[in-house]
Write a structure and sequence with these properties.
single chain, nine-stranded mixed sheet, six-stranded parallel sheet, Dihydrodipicolinate Reductase, domain 2, 2 domains, Rossmann fold, globular, alpha/beta
Length: 486
């Protein structure tokens, strides 16, 4: 998306401001970038969100613009088309903007939209440079606006319920390891219609159509698997742990496709999270054997996460495994399962047998109070949540509500910064030849109050996973994996 350095101040000069707008039923949205992910949002999330109205769409590639316009309702809903987002910002009375453009364009567009007084939804990864992400956090603070980032798992009620059961019910105990992967077996390329000649207007901003459409595969515009897939899942890891990584080791290579792309087609990383007493995610434990030292077991500890992604085998697909000493959650965008630890169940049964009858009658162990069903110790037990909406719809309805109520998104700009730091640090480790990259706390530290990056929905109801609970709206099955990447 070519920028001109202009400021989009016409709407503000005319007295219109998203912030000044009183409580309304719907927010007026402009969509910038209407390719694969942008059109998916227009078809699914924005189209179904009851509090969002798309009034304008913008894209510099005309086939994408036409497709996005139709997905947004086109002539029937009087949606206006633009090829220059500055013009859209100047002419339209917008409350918010949805940005679904290539990664390397995010920074300038987000900053221009915030300068124009618009709330922003930006696809992940937030930016291609950590310092650019920091500038967006600062700009949000200066303007009083927010930037919601496309980490849609934060709005998946099954993930939220698993997070709540982890924090409020201690269902998995102390998290001590995490495993995540996104495996697929395809070339990850977008079709390029070479028979269509670019218009003179398009040629000004699209010097190479192949690189424009397949921007994920080229180093100048993307970090490949690390910025388009990894950040989704590493975001969940740090959300559950309540901490950013302290360091990361990574390796990867271009070993299979070798078709002109410049980013690795497979990666493997280890993230380390140093947790200490007082941290959001710190969990104290009790001794399980007489050999454990009471004065040592609750000192600072380190949790490790292994992450892999490949484009040449689809086995195991995409999931996150949250592993604790009492149980584990296995999460996907469609399903959530709890697995109890048989070793803990056995230990608790042995302790009960060793007690006299009176003590046994009075004892309440963690396993008993949580009431995990037997299936949780064998094949895994599903965490059920009633829902009749897609996750994309839920994230945009939440976005609309936060704009109307001047709230703070769960997937706010600090969430975007933390995830970007994790992905970009891992990318650096890979590009530097398999080195260890230390995460500098200064990267996510500011001299002003920032939004909470670890917030989740509170659940009230039975502790037993089998009984579950219902929500105001919770995820229907999410979009296909291919559609969930920006």
């Amino acid at each position: 998306m070519k920028t001109t350095g202009l400021t989009a101040g016409a709407a503000l000069a005319a007295g219109y401001s998203a912030k000044a707008r009183a409580a309304v039923d719907k927010i007026r949205v402009g969509s910038i970038g209407t390719g694969g992910q942008g059109s998916f949002h227009l078809r699914d999330g924005l189209a179904r969100a009851e509090n969002c109205e798309v009034v304008a769409v913008c894209d510099i590639y005309l086939p994408h613009l036409e497709g996005g316009w139709k997905n947004a309702g086109g002539e029937q809903r009087r949606v206006t088309k633009y090829t220059n987002y500055h013009e859209m910002l100047d002419k339209e009375e917008l409350d918010a903007v949805v940005i679904s453009t290539p990664l390397h364009t995010h920074y300038q567009i987000v900053m221009d939209c915030l300068d124009a007084g618009k709330y922003v939804y930006c696809e992940k990864t937030l930016c291609y440079e950590i310092e650019d992400c920091r500038e967006i956090v600062k700009k949000c603070h200066e303007t009083g606006l927010f930037c919601q980032v496309g980490h849609q798992r934060r709005y998946n009620p099954k993930y939220n319920k698993a997070k709540w059961l982890t924090v409020e019910r201690g269902l998995v105990g102390r998290i001590n390891h995490m495993t995540a992967q996104w495996h697929r077996n395809n070339h990850w390329r977008r079709y390029v219609d070479h028979s269509r000649e670019l218009t003179p207007e398009e040629k000004k901003v699209i010097p190479d159509l192949e690189r424009h459409l397949n921007w994920r595969l080229y180093k100048e515009s993307s970090g490949g698997l690390m910025t388009e897939l990894c950040t989704h899942q590493i975001d969940i890891v740090q959300w559950f742990l309540g901490a950013p990584p302290s360091r990361v080791f990574g390796t990867g290579g271009l070993d299979y496709w070798r078709d002109g792309r410049e980013v690795p087609d497979n990666v493997a990383l280890v993230y380390e999270y140093d947790i200490k007493p007082g941290d959001v995610g710190f969990q104290a434990i009790q001794r399980r054997t007489r050999y454990q030292k009471k004065t040592r077991i609750n000192r600072p500890y380190t949790v490790r996460c292994t992450y892999t992604s490949t484009t040449a085998t689809g086995k195991r697909g995409a999931s996150e495994l949250i592993q604790g000493d009492r149980g584990s959650f296995e999460l996907t965008e469609k399903d959530c399962f709890i697995f109890g630890e048989p070793a803990i169940k056995l230990e608790e049964e042995q302790k009960k047998q060793a007690m006299d009858a009176k003590k046994a009658a009075e004892a309440v162990t963690s396993g008993k109070s949580l009431g995990l069903p037997n299936d949780a110790y064998t094949k895994g037990y599903p965490i059920e949540v009633f829902n009749d909406k897609s996750v994309d719809q839920l994230q945009f309805e939440a976005f609309g509500n936060d704009v109307i109520d001047k709230g703070t998104p769960k997937a706010n700009q600090m969430v975007g910064l933390y995830a970007a730091i994790s992905g970009l640090a891992g990318l650096k480790a890979i590009r530097d030849g398999g080195t260890v990259v230390d995460i500098d706390p200064a990267w996510y530290t500011f001299d002003f109050e920032t939004p909470d990056p670890y917030r989740f929905e509170n659940w009230e109801g039975p502790d037993t996973p089998a009984e579950g609970a219902t929500t105001k709206g919770a995820p229907a099955d999410a979009a296909p994996a291919e559609e969930t990447t920006a």
